[in-house]
C-alpha cells in the first residue's frame, strides 16, 4: 500500500514563523490552523523533509521552470475556454457558428496539446510549448 508521501507528492518550505509553511509547487501559505496543515503533518510523518526558510537578505529564488510553464499553460487554457463554451452554446441554440469546423477542431487539438505538454520529454522548455492556431490570438482578444 502506498504511503501518504506517494499519494500526495507535495513539497513544503519552512518560514520564519514555525506555525506557517509554504506549500510547493503552488506557493500557498499554510498556517497551523488551515485545513492543509494536516496534510503537511501527514507528509512529514511519511518522511517528507521541508526546504529551509529563505534568509531575509538572500536573493529571491527564481520560480521553478515547471511552475512557470504550468502557469502559462493554465492561462492558455483559461484564455481559450470561452471560445469552446461559445461554440457549444451556438451549436445547442442552433445559431450560426462563429468558428469554422476546422477552427473549432484546431482549438480542441491545441487545448489537448496543452494538457499533454507536461508529460512530454522536453517539458518545460519554451521551444516545446504547444503552438496556438494562427487565428487564435486575435480571436482570443475578442477581435
TrEMBL record:
<feature type="domain" description="Phage tail assembly chaperone-like">
    <location>
        <begin position="68"/>
        <end position="133"/>
    </location>
</feature>
<dbReference type="Pfam" id="PF16778">
    <property type="entry name" value="Phage_tail_APC"/>
</dbReference>
<dbReference type="InterPro" id="IPR031893">
    <property type="entry name" value="Phage_tail_APC"/>
</dbReference>
<protein>
    <submittedName>
        <fullName>Phage tail protein</fullName>
    </submittedName>
</protein>
